[in-house]
Amino acid sequence: MKKPVISIILGISLLLLAIVSVLLFRQISTQSPNPFTNQDNGTPLMGMNPNMGMGGEVTMELVPSKQETKELALPPLLEGTLSSDGSISYTIATQEGGTQFKEGNATQTFGYNGSYLGPIIRIRKGQNVHLTTVNKLEENTSFHWHGLKIPSNVDGGPHSPIKPNGTATVDFTVMQEAATLWFHPHPEGRTGEQVYNGLAGLIYVEDENSDSLDLPKDYGINDFPIIVQDRFFDEDNQFNYQDIQNMDGTQGDTLLVNGTINPYIEVKNEKIRLRLVNGSNARNYQFNLSSKESFYQIASDGGFLNEPVQMDTLQLVPGERAEIVVDVSDYKKGDNVKLMNGNAEVLSINVVEGINPEIKSLPETLNKISTSFNSVSVPDKELTFSGMGNMVAINGKQFDMERIDLQAKTGTTEIWEINNSNDMMGGMIHPFHLHGVQFKVLDRNGKVPPANEQGWKDTIALYPGEKVQIEVEFPEKGIFMYHCHILEHEDNGMMGQIIVE
Ligand SMILES: [Cu+2]
């Protein structure tokens, strides 16, 4: 053969080798550990993978569990001590325990005042809140109020570790409107494992507006907390986080709602309010109804939307919340509709009592948030999320407790531009979360955000290649965190800190 021909063949071979290497590396870095087969489960779900990001990251498939259907577990409403001045005191212990998720062995888990997840903390706008928290774990933890506007010394970030047998007390005044928020640990480098083991709970903030709105509000009757998580059980029914953790977000093949596998709720034929919380380490959900009927979103992360927004599907990334109303007024006793994630069943809503509810529509106005969506050409701050695995970074840097990355002043409105760099591996959706504030999304890639994102937010999806502008104002001084809410990315250093003076 002539030399040029040999060179061409050699060149093509090298190119093919390079392509195969990149593909192989991508498989390994996104799919390990492998294989994901759950002994007592059936075949993987076919069809659309609801976790396939725009960047095409491969995720663990959800598998329908063979466990019998079970009534949805409802977190207890935490009882506090009300003082004569209206302030409320709560006590919460962070502890270990065993949880019976499925037949066979109990799973070793963490929980707040129980073995898995925690109670609902109810607070009101204007109220003084006093919380005492005890750490009964054998490791440091912290108590972070996700979505609450509070001073940084009570925010419970990595600066505020609580040692084993340690106690922390926090006092603050509720400065914000009605919303469904949540709490979870935020210790440096250990958030992913502690949340995966079960540490998370809800905060219901109420105010005069939520009191007066004609919405379903009977807890466990027509108003349900829905904490959606995915977990992987080994042969002994254990979580085994250390063995299955993934640098790009730990997932499981089994869905849990409030810790229940294959859950159902029993309701009357009326409007049903679901307070959806994506409490997963890394999985994105695409909620829809099995009937293909639409539903209404009434609240985003930080409170009510201005008006109910009719939706067919709703995406929630880790850390995000949404309140929706599913109307089963037309249903008869014995009918049911399922809340789905893509093609995977999340929750069965079973109508067990036919009443003749007064047919009324949802309130037309729920809130009065000023909305102006003017993006700016020169934002006050720019953040770029990049990388995967242990290469994740914000503005090219990984978290350093000793380094302050940004500065701001209280009472000053700023425009931040947040970019998700479209890197060579195709990139991932990074959920951006900012502590201590509720912000507004001004635009996504130069476009007005969708109607259900035109409310208060503390966590938003950033698709690969996206540019999102938000409007932020810090009410309190101190040092606050901003980070990716894929908990393993956060633990790997996709986090920065801002000092507010
Ligand atoms: Cu991330």
From TrEMBL:
Gene3D superfamilies in the cross-refs: Cupredoxins - blue copper proteins
GO MF annotation list: copper ion binding; oxidoreductase activity
GO biological process, one term: cell division
Segments forming domain Plastocyanin-like: 97-209, 225-330, 388-501
Protein's UniProt keywords contain Repeat: no
Pfam family of the protein (one): Cu-oxidase
Alphabetical keyword list: Capsid protein, Cell cycle, Cell division, Metal-binding, Oxidoreductase, Virion
InterPro entries to which the protein is assigned, alphabetical: Cu-oxidase-like_N, Cu-oxidase_2nd, Cu-oxidase_C, Cu-oxidase_fam, Cu_oxidase_CS, Cu_oxidase_Cu_BS, Cupredoxin
Family: Belongs to the multicopper oxidase family.
Database matches in PANTHER family: BILIRUBIN OXIDASE, CUPREDOXIN SUPERFAMILY PROTEIN
Protein's UniProt name: Multicopper oxidase with three cupredoxin domains (Includes cell division protein FtsP and spore coat protein CotA)
Annotated source species: Carnobacterium alterfunditum
